[in-house]
Amino acid sequence: MWRYVLLALPVFCVLPSIAFAQSGPACTGPTALDQMIVSNPSSGAYEALGTWFAKRRQFSCAISAFESALRLDPKSWQGHYDLGLTLLSSGNPRGAITELKTASALKPNSEQILLPLGAALSETNRQDSAIEVFKSILKENPQSIKAIDGLTKAFIAEGRYEAAIAALKNAPPDEVLQLNLAVAYSKNGNPDESLKVLSAIIKQHPAYAQGHFNMGAVYVQENRFGEAAQEFKEALRLDPSDDVTRLSYVKALVVLAQFDTAAPIMQEYRQRRPHEFDALYFSGVVEKGLGDYAGAEKFLRQAVAINPNYFDARYSLGYVLAHLSRPAEARPELEAALKLDPSSSKARFQLAAVLRALGQKSEANKELSTFEKQKEQGVKQDVAGVKANQANADLQTGDPQKAVDLYRQSLVEDPGNARTYYNLALALDRTGDHRAEREALEKAVELDPKLARPHNQLGVLDLQENQAATAKKQFETAISLDPQYAEAQNNLGVLSGQLGESAQAEKLFREATENNPQYGQAFANLGMILASEGRFPEAAQALSTAVQIEPNNTGALSAYGMVLVRLNKGSEALTHFRKVTELDPKSPGAHLNLGIALADQFDLNGALSEFSEAVNLDPDNAVAHYNKGRVLLDLQRNSEAKPELEKAIQLDPNSADSWYLLGLISRQAGETEAAIRNFQKSLAVKPDNAEAHFMLGQELQRKGDSAGAIEQWRRTIQIQPQYSEAYYSLSRLLMQSHPDEAKRLQAQFKTLQAAQHITDRANTLGNFALASADAHDWPQAIAQLKEAINACGQCDSLAPLHKDLGLIYCRSGDYKNGRTELLAAQKLTPADEDIKKALELLQTVQSPTL
């Protein structure tokens, strides 16, 4: 039986500013233009001549004229554009691509140029590049119908039907786009949705022949041949010139055995295309159906001569010859048919009858025996199918071992079924038998190398075994076999991310989300790769989608929370972090993330509770001990913070931040030697920490080691040239020993102050306080801000000084004084949104000091 071509897409067409067509050999333009070129050859004159030829469908003349124009003005985007369009229309899309790319470089982001460029790329089967071009248009103009049309046709050409459907669902109303949607639904195995779309198109445009044709094609797909025939008939009435519809109508009538109706339609088709294989083959089929075997023989012989490797033609000719009582001639045709399709039981049965008619009973019995074996194998396959279906059900209901047993029983009956081997592999994966899983997957690939899913699963196994190269190859093979296989694209994206290929990973994750808009993990992975590149607004959008699709995906929730923190949306982040701890209360990481978010929202006691839980769940987690120690230090509970930080260092001796905080504790306790030792340990691991160098310098000065202090403060300035307090401290220390350098440092200090608009003592102290806060030295920061407020009196900086002091009190866990200072600042600047937000946060914080 022939194969229907289901759902033909209308040809993608870009309507250019000029209409191109085929020319005759003479290139004679209008007299005025010819005289202008002779007297004053210019780029504009040749452009006008090229346009004139193009409108008259004279390709070669138009191309020659545009090339002459470009020789005079090679930087003309219009010239390259017109030449590109001419080449595209003349059947040279590769040449068109070169010219249109040049035009686009001269006039970037032009939809006029990009549309035919995308079409040319599609015509050369460079669908990936075409898709990127159409996407670039839609980025600037999301409602471009032509770009959506080109994009979705490229998706469909690549087999990425889900991506096409997603792009078309919210597209502007247009019958061509709706037809694309119907095609995508049908090819994706959703005929009911396709019929709904087509019905709506036909209702709105009842004379739209292409709509009726595609409706008929979907009916064929559903084996509803009577309805298909009616649609093809109507499409042919609306467009009698469409031979594709004419032939499809004949095919439907043949299946319905309505040969009388098919005959005149087939005759007209044959008159229009007398030497075409389909015209001859289907003429033979119709005559055969009418019982005119002699007429059928004539057409079928011609068809076989054109294509001797078409099974149905060889079989039908053998059948006709057998019924004309010419078994000797029928035999080679039927034998040829069986070579083309050895599984055909009808051809084997006819051959057995022909052999019997020739008196070759032994050979006839042999063919009948094979025929019976094929029937028996068919029965076995039916039994195998029942067992496989039972196994599928057991796998879905959570009994993988029972599924394994049934799949193995199914394979005894049907050992050549690649899909059953793949399903067996899935069941074995659930049981944890990965060795047997790999064997089943390799057998599936051996039996059917074009089956995409086993390749993907082999890639997963390879990735688990750190075999990156072979995993990559398996994923790429799976995608080449099934271009809309979102899971394989996601897996390859994960591997690309692990290999540091961020751009490739992003591309693959985006393709996965386009091909399966409900694939939450792909959106989550896309969000995480974007976040890793600092593209937080885009990351938030992707992760928000992931969470909407999979509300209980803890990985997506955690990543979304982290991104929201980076976007200064801490209160929103808390909601997601809390949900993660509810979903996975035994996860130390979940409690750590929640604790960090709570600390960022001033809830230090809540943060301490979460960090403590993380330590309880994982006592050997250095990060958990560090964060617990850090928040205890912020709460000024230094004696409790110290053992936590020491434990963090015991677990991770290279924890520079833990050494640094221990240095602060020693400093605040007046233990200069211990402070020096701890700061030095921190700097040994993290030598570019400007705050640690500054603090170490202060402790060395306190010890009396002026040279050591000078060295550390110089290093501070080298690392952080804007560290004004280091300039101030260094200049004062060098005043006696190096007065010239001290003056230079004083000048640099004043320059920094001026740049920061810090012109008096109050602001200078306020600036020093912020530096102390950055260094996590809350007591020093608070003392400096109090001194700054006293120095300020009623100066213009009073409000920001109160605000900074309030925020630092909150950071240190003293919410009562924090509220007092923030209210004082709000009284002075009622419109400050940061103060308002901080006070709102304080209302939600539970603290014994309030």
TrEMBL record:
<feature type="repeat" description="TPR">
    <location>
        <begin position="622"/>
        <end position="655"/>
    </location>
</feature>
<feature type="repeat" description="TPR">
    <location>
        <begin position="43"/>
        <end position="76"/>
    </location>
</feature>
<feature type="repeat" description="TPR">
    <location>
        <begin position="311"/>
        <end position="344"/>
    </location>
</feature>
<feature type="repeat" description="TPR">
    <location>
        <begin position="486"/>
        <end position="519"/>
    </location>
</feature>
<feature type="repeat" description="TPR">
    <location>
        <begin position="554"/>
        <end position="587"/>
    </location>
</feature>
<protein>
    <recommendedName>
        <fullName>Tfp pilus assembly protein PilF</fullName>
    </recommendedName>
</protein>
<dbReference type="InterPro" id="IPR011990">
    <property type="entry name" value="TPR-like_helical_dom_sf"/>
</dbReference>
<feature type="repeat" description="TPR">
    <location>
        <begin position="656"/>
        <end position="689"/>
    </location>
</feature>
<dbReference type="InterPro" id="IPR019734">
    <property type="entry name" value="TPR_rpt"/>
</dbReference>
<dbReference type="Pfam" id="PF14559">
    <property type="entry name" value="TPR_19"/>
</dbReference>
<keyword id="KW-0677">Repeat</keyword>
<feature type="repeat" description="TPR">
    <location>
        <begin position="588"/>
        <end position="621"/>
    </location>
</feature>
<feature type="signal peptide">
    <location>
        <begin position="1"/>
        <end position="21"/>
    </location>
</feature>
<keyword id="KW-0802">TPR repeat</keyword>
<dbReference type="InterPro" id="IPR050498">
    <property type="entry name" value="Ycf3"/>
</dbReference>
<feature type="repeat" description="TPR">
    <location>
        <begin position="209"/>
        <end position="242"/>
    </location>
</feature>
<feature type="repeat" description="TPR">
    <location>
        <begin position="418"/>
        <end position="451"/>
    </location>
</feature>
<feature type="repeat" description="TPR">
    <location>
        <begin position="277"/>
        <end position="310"/>
    </location>
</feature>
<feature type="repeat" description="TPR">
    <location>
        <begin position="111"/>
        <end position="144"/>
    </location>
</feature>
<keyword id="KW-0732">Signal</keyword>
<feature type="repeat" description="TPR">
    <location>
        <begin position="520"/>
        <end position="553"/>
    </location>
</feature>
<feature type="repeat" description="TPR">
    <location>
        <begin position="452"/>
        <end position="485"/>
    </location>
</feature>
<feature type="repeat" description="TPR">
    <location>
        <begin position="690"/>
        <end position="723"/>
    </location>
</feature>
<dbReference type="Pfam" id="PF13432">
    <property type="entry name" value="TPR_16"/>
</dbReference>
<dbReference type="Pfam" id="PF13181">
    <property type="entry name" value="TPR_8"/>
</dbReference>
